[in-house]
Input
Amino acid sequence: MTLEDKHIVHHRDPLEAIKTLLGNPAHAEHVVYGPKKIFSDASQSERIYNEMWTGDWWNTLSLQDRLPSGACVAPVIIATDKTQLTQFTGGKTTYPVYLTLGNLPRAIRRKPLQQACILIAYLSISKMVGKQLTKKQKSTRIQQLFHDSMCIVLEPLIEAGKKGMEVTGGDGKVRIMYPILACYVADYPEQCLVTCTKYGTCPKCQVNDDEMGGREAAGWRTQCRTSKLIRIAREKATSISNFQELCKVDNISGGVRHPFWEDFPHCDIHMGITSDILHQLYQGVNGWSQLSQVSGKERKDMARILLGCIMGKAPFQVIVCYRALLDFIYVAQYPTHDDSTLQYLTNALDEFHANKDILVDLGIRNHFNIPKFHSMLHYEECICNFGTTDNYNTEMFEHFHIDYAKEAWRASNFRNELPQMTQ
Ligand SMILES: [Zn+2]
Output
């Protein structure tokens, strides 16, 4: 091992973070320890989805049945997002890992001042993974470095997820809690990294990359299947590049031999990947990818006036197409959904697909086989499983960067800053 192969991960015990979150007396009366099915009326004809405990992941995947009676689930939400510390060239980046729980209401979770989201690690952002390596080999090393680091950071969750742990709540009661990795919040490149998905394909389903523009999703990827395929490739492979080739056949990245989630109990990493409104919809689908350095707020403002700008200037079908996309974006952000409003989401998607070919005919786009368009097919499933999209919004975590990354950076002397930021 050369000096370049040493990387430092600053981290703390996620179980202590979970105990802190549940033990906070200020939140005691708001913490929810079990799933709830909510209906819009007494006849129970229409389900309502909003907080995480109203979703199917906690309610109907018989998760609770697999645990001893009296045990409570702590749905763990992990978010990672590389962030720039300085705006100028040669800028420093940092790679924070955040942890929060589905037991807390989203209104508390998203406010930095409520301390309902805990920074548990800064991962290594070093690109020094061996100077002599080719670009492809470097990419493989960086992928494995991420998984090895997350293995170290999240390892305590494995044992606690299998055997449970005693946690004193903010109300003073002691409960047996099972922390289970439920959601992983990240942008598309990181979704691929986390799930070992080949870049350019879907981290949630097995759709072929030339069929991504279609209306239907393919069969699910599952953690079990991906683990098995990686294991088979590992056993069969005669060399590292052969391992990668074997993985690529199944649209697996081939950069990771041992994913960090391999031994996580009751977890499905592919299901846990959540929709990302900011990057997938505002930045991707609306076709302003050419504009860099545009803030989330500015993109939202542009979406607001888009229809007014193209009215009378673009063909009718183009307007219908963009209106359907905008409907989808806004309906996807409803803070509460029921079966009727989920139908609005489906209708908007149907309308978009029925009219999208005009954009190809006019030469605005060549095709729709890109992950951002495809991702729209998975919103409904995500809302039904984990509650509305404000539970796992990447924007929420971007706010935390101000406190946990940028403020901490400014408090350092800008030299060997990570230990100081951690302090
Ligand atoms: Zn998919």
Residues 279-386 form one domain.
